Amino acid sequence: MEPRKYVLLMSIVVGCSVATAKTIFLEEDMPSIEEISFMKKYGYLPEKQDDIDFAYTSHSIAEALKKMQEFAGLSPTGHLDSETRKLFKRKRCGVKDIETKSAIHRRKRYILQQGWGKKAITYRILNGSSTLERARVQSLMATGLAVWAPHGGLRFEQLERGKADIQVSFASKDHGDGFPFDGPGHVVAHAFPPPHGAMHFDDDELWGDNPAEEDEDITDFFAVAVHEIGHALGLSHSNVKASVMYPYYQVPVEKLHEDDILGMQELYLKEEIPSVSAESTERSVASRSSLAPRPTLADDDENDVPDLCYTNYDTLQVIQGKIYVFEEEWVWVLTERKQILEGYPKRFHDVFIGLPKHINVIRTIYEKQNGHIVVFSGRSFWEFSSRFRLVRRGRISEYKIPPQISELTTVFLSNYNNKTYLIEYERFWRFDEATGKMDKGYPKEMSAWRQVPYPVDAAIIWKGDTYFFRGPRFWRFDNTLVRAHEYYPLPTAQIWFPCRPTPDMARYVSNDEP
Ligand code: ZN
Ligand code: ZN
Predict the structure, then answer these.
(1) Could you confirm whether 367 is annotated as catalytic?
(2) DSSP 8-state code for residue 397
(3) Model confidence over 315-326: pLDDT tens digits?
(4) Which of 80, 296, 337, 448 is 20 to 30 A from 436, alpha carbon to alpha carbon?
(5) Which residues have CB atoms below 5 A from the ion given as ligand 1?
(6) Distance in Å, CA 48 to ligand 1 centroid
(7) Dist. CA 94 → ligand 1 center (Å)
(8) Predicted TM-score (pTM) above 0.85
């Protein structure tokens, strides 16, 4: 484990009641309230629920700074050096860089990133800015759209009236969408992904058309528009500095980077499958209310290590005969049920070295037939050798799944047929690693695993049996009867981890949904 940056447990208090702050500020290295809210706004620091008198530890601030530095392409020192301080002040897009923990949990049921699900997209320019007339905005916007169009096979049509897919407007301060602009500087624009598609430019900026480089007060409309179009088409921020989807303002924008193009291809150019249908969205909303409760303990532990006995688990997997349990940034390794290997939990970044620092959750992981270990997060995966050395990074599209899939929720290799099962919420595919091909007849509905509720958080093979995990409970699957064993589910914590049964756990033994 990496040495702690600060020896004392310090906390800084944001909000009210300074009198209760047990705060020791040793250095000017502590971020200001504005810098803290920047890190929250862009997803580097978790939003705390209780907004009075809460505190972030110096450790969590250092970690947030590292993530932010890494995303911006600076060296991740965790210190507020002058380069980092400049980031807080730079002009940038107002869209979040990283999905925070709570957003990820909500996201488990939704496909957040999606395209328009059609090739002909309309747009409308509602107004011009005080410094850039509407006709100029129209022409620059048309050029910007033309930069993206070929990479998704898209056609853009401008509307003069009526509701267009992408509505472009200039506005200042609070403009009704819950994301007020901030006056001159810093946030210059934001845009919403499909099916919303709105694109807003801060009218308190001095917008220009290809301004001279030394004219720092003027913001180049074209450079910002090309970036915002990316969001309106469904792309999120990239940490690739040369890409258009890098969140900080950079000029000039001449062409798209390969990273931008790859994103477009995944959204628009793979097999043509309709994006989220109204029906599946409805089903997601309905099943969401049946999610198992997530009991949480007050994490006043200075390390914020979740209590293995009172948590849901991001995922579990068997690797080299040991059980790996992931929750938040932590991993536990068990040699047997209830036997935690000494030295654990560790931060998973200290086990899977080379994983980008901004990865703050491991969604799913599995051991390939050749013994390599593959870690999934979003649309990317990282492959490690059996000795935990990073071998390469890839895109989930290599598994031949449709491009609309924004993440795989569970992946496991079956001992029954040696096939790799790729699960996405309510559906799954079967992939043959030996041939590199998807088996015919997939995807199938998760209901094929009878009596196993879905979506599942994890699926593992342990001592020859298949187990599914969801929330705080697990099911054993009977491959002969092709259904879950009757006396399941059982509480995961009590059976797999060294946790004493409590009355609280007893209710999980019930077969009924809580
Ligand atoms: Zn952006
Ligand atoms: Zn807005």
Answers:
(1) no
(2) G
(3) 999 999 999 999
(4) 448
(5) 93, 95
(6) 24
(7) 6
(8) no
